[in-house]
Amino acid sequence: RDLTDISLLKCFIHLRYVDLSDNKLQDLSPLNSLTHLLWLKVDGNLLTSACMQVLPYLQIISFAHNHIKYMEGITHPRLVNLSLKGNKIQTALGLGHGQLFSLQILELRGNKLESTAGFNLPKLKSLYLAQNTIRRLEGLEGLEQLTTLHLRDNKLETLDGFCSSMKCLQYLNLRNNGISNLQEVEKLQVLPMLQALVLLDNPCSDESSYRLEVLVLLPHLQRLDKELVEEDERADANQIRQKRQEEEK
User: Fold this and answer.
1) Taking CA 165 as the corner, what is the angle to CA 84 and CA 196, rounded to the nearest 5 degrees?
2) Whole-prediction pTM value?
3) Residues 6+ apart with CB under 8 A from 11
């Protein structure tokens, strides 16, 4: 509706659900009065910051497709689901400062992140980082409850940075990065629960024995590139692995 001013909302202190998408808002300060707010959607505005006063009951926020560059000032203690996709965020440092105790889903697709540093979110279960320019995986050791990690369409050439503390990670999407050496996949052995891996559109996926070599390195995978691992594939991979182990003795 091309709204630029929402000061009228200050009066409605008991509002719980607010959708202000597709306007021309640059200032959300009138919402600081809405201390009962549970759900807020402000997609497609002109916001340059996500900073707001703490809203004690807020559980879901979507700031998608604004002009936000920084993540400071998001400190709502009951926030479970946060979307900042399609902004201009370059770093996750400053996110929450230990305030986002409840955050489980974080959507940051289509930003300008170059690194994964800063995601110190102990309850996080799903992290969506596709379509950034990430070259370095770092600071992931605190994501102990993470089950899903999307890194499609980034600039990764190595898989350093994964660690054994990520003991719940089950799904990892690395499609369309720059991973050329299949030995990089060996670094994923530190992920004890990894069941589904996507490596399509990486240079390494063009190798003739690509699928078999991945299964040799990661015998517990249930799905590779969206396709279930067949029993005969698994048997072939096990045979190759055993043969190589014997040769190393």
Assistant:
1) 65
2) 0.95
3) none
Whether 78 contacts 57, CB under 8 Å: yes
Residue 91 in tokens: 């770093």
| Tokens found for residue 194 | 């990894």
Q: What CA–CA distance (Å, rounded) separates 241 from 243?
A: 5
> Residue 117's pLDDT band (boundaries 50, 70, 90)?
very high
pLDDT tens digits, 148-163:
999 999 999 999 999 9
Q: Could you say which DSSP state residue 230 is in? A: P
Going from the C-alpha of 225 to that of each of 154, 191, 209, 215, the distances in angstroms are 17, 17, 14, 12
SS3 of residue 21 by DSSP: coil
Contact indicator for 143, 162 with CB cutoff of 8 Å: no
Q: Please state, in angstroms and rounded to a whole number, the distance separating the CA atoms of residues 42 and 21.
A: 4
